[in-house]
Amino acid sequence: MAKERPVNRARLQDLLWSDRGLKQGRDSLRKALSELRGCFKDIDLNPVQSHGGPVRLLLDKIEVDLFEDTSDQGLYRPEFLEGIDVIDPEFNTWLTGVRAKLYSEDRTKKRAVPAQVAASKSEPARLGSLLEVGVLPIISDHRGLGTAMCDMFADKLGELFLECAIIQPYDYRSQSASQVEGMGPDVVLSIRHNQVGNGHFISINFQATGDRATVFSCIFQIDEADFSLPWVMRKCAEIFDQFCEKLVRFEGFSEPRHLAAKRLFFAIDRIFRLSNFDLDQAGNLLEEACKHTSASTVYAWNAFLTAFRLEKSGAGSHQALMEQAESYARKALERDPHNALTVALVGHVYGFVLRDKNRAAELLSNFADQAQYQPMLADTIAMHCYYMGDFKTARSFAGQAAQLGRFNPFRYSFTTSLAMTSLMCGDLRPAVQYCNAALAQHPVSGGTLYEPTLRTLAAAAGHAGQKNVGRIAYRNLANQTGTSPLENINEAAFPNRETLSFVKSGMEKLNV
Can you tell me the mean pLDDT for 31-38? Predict the structure, then answer.
């Protein structure tokens, strides 16, 4: 990092051994430098130069990947010193500052961040966007680290807006406050940073430009040592889900494109309620949204809806639903085969509805790295592994989805996936606990409970010997469907025969 400038030994000692005494710190540094020089003993001129004084690194003798151009490495780019574990507060403070500085420099140099789609409202909006969000200049009392932190949030939220494919982000961070006035996006996003000691407070505020009413706001605190890019991405996923939920209920928009955006988010909320009436209403709302936008995600949600309809339909309507699902899935991929949310939704359709596991595997193969930031994608991969009988991998991805999607409207589904995979891994009591957690996450009024949750709870409780718990779940399932769960359990809900057999045997142990 010093780029051949000599670094004082006292500085290195403070960074790596600040919690030790002076003599112990000096001895530790001397030993570490000796071992490091030993790694280069075969080089004529050792690149680690130190003769009892400052330490200098000769960069022409070695290659340092920090200075390489990594623009062609794809979507995943590791953080500086990612994976290193140094338990020293001084070092972690330095590491956080360097990571933020490198991120800021990279962003300025490459300007390839999706949030920066347009610099002014005079440029044409992307096809299909229904709502515009403008990112205002960052406000921070710590211009270096604080600004870089806020820029990370702005950039990652911008990526999520683009991914949902109906929200157009505009970047006004380089503009002055007077220049922003009158540019007129539908919503402005302001991000403010304050620092108290090593604690950083970041506030997020989405405000409608018309009447300046708040759509959604939040504030949170993070210690410097805990700050990282993965943490930012997880936090942004939570903020995005909460913003969309508030947007559905916000009454300040009236233009047709605004109403279409609300219809889409409202349709997702209807799917969440699971009754036949709500699913039909969701279908109508999604059809209406398709008239206002050609976004791939709208068609993907239409395809995804068929999975819930298939769960409730009779055998006679399976073929019609499968044809409908295939049509929407094809249209979604034609519009954008690289959108992670589209791939997550359509991947589930190919695996569960169309039973084309090879096509699902092909779609998901290039997106596994993104699952740690996209709960729908993590859940789809979990279910694909579940259908293929790889239950341990399935449980790992299901755990990611449940953790990341805590504020997602489908959080009950993610927790149910965790219960289903735990059941097949033989973890019976955790499976029961996850099912109860999923039921608590889905307190709908006028809707219905998620039938996979009830089925999994009945089976897990049966195998675990918790017959009273299992019988309650079994009877709730029977009352909701109007049929006998054991008599009507079939492969429509279980693409994997091993899971079908195990769930069925668990229910049989209830002796209902």
Answer: 80
Structure tokens at 193: 């940073």
Plot region of 168 (φ>0 → left; ψ -120 to 50 → alpha; else → beta) = beta
d(CA 378, CA 261): 25
On whether the CB atoms of residues 154 and 170 are closer than 8 A, the answer is no
Short-list 98, 35, 107, CA closest to 66: 98
Strands (E), 50-179: 56-57, 131-135, 139-140, 167-171
With pLDDT > 90 as the criterion, what percentage of the chain qualifies? 14
Of the ranges 73-77, 197-201, 246-250, 419-423, the best mean pLDDT one: 419-423
* β pairing state of 187-196 and 131-135: parallel
Q: Which residues in 447-481 are b (16+ Cβ under 10 Å) and which e? A: bbbbbbbbbbbbbbbbbbebeebbbbbbebbbebe
**Which residues have CB under 8 Å from 166's CB, separation 6+?**
128, 129, 130, 131, 261, 264, 293, 295, 297, 298
CA distance 439 to 449: 7
Chain segment 308-354, per-residue pLDDT in tens:
777 666 544 577 778 888 888 888 888 888 888 888 899 988 888 78
pTM for the model: 0.62
